[in-house]
Model the fold of this input.
Amino acid sequence: MSIDVGNYYPFRDGRIDEIENGLTESVWVERQIGRPVVKLLNTIPSKALMAAGRLAGSRDRVALPISGDNTKAKEIVAQLIDRIGFDSVDAGTIAESWRQQPGSPVYCTNPTKEELQLWLKKSTVLHLPPTERRD
Ligand SMILES: NC(=O)c1ccc[n+]([C@@H]2O[C@H](COP(=O)([O-])OP(=O)(O)OC[C@H]3O[C@@H](n4cnc5c(N)ncnc54)[C@H](OP(=O)(O)O)[C@@H]3O)[C@@H](O)[C@H]2O)c1
Done:
């Protein structure tokens, strides 16, 4: 299993035409490396990852989206995420992982599980064009 924690920022990474034209970032990654990925951890800044872990059941426990085409792989990483103090939500297939890309409502907003479930559903408008993004 490969895990994709990456994000595409053209001013940092260089322009990638396929993504600029709408290809989901992790689909592009899969094509580059020639195998499927599970996308997670891209939505949480490293400082929050270090500080925001909570015991299961805590009201302020942050939840992370997990996207991918392999259900078993997603279950495994969900267990891993739980062990380091975070809830998770299955965010769908890798083609749907644009819902957790930069510019989406769940990106770097540290949602609870309930908020994450709601905001993923509300992500009906595609993320900002990459060229308009800033950290
Ligand atoms: N930092 C965060 O808070 C955070 C949170 C969520 C997601 N992310 C995403 O995770 C990814 C990595 O972020 P980071 O903060 O870990 O960046 P980073 O500290 O700058 O590390 C980037 C790593 O990628 C390597 N690298 C860069 N260009 C490469 C190339 N052409 N071929 C092979 N290796 C290359 C670098 O190697 P060298 O050291 O040899 O240059 C370095 O080890 C990004 O997509 C970022 O958006 C970051």
Summary: The first strand starts at residue 2 and ends at 4. The mean pLDDT is 93. The radius of gyration is 14 Å.
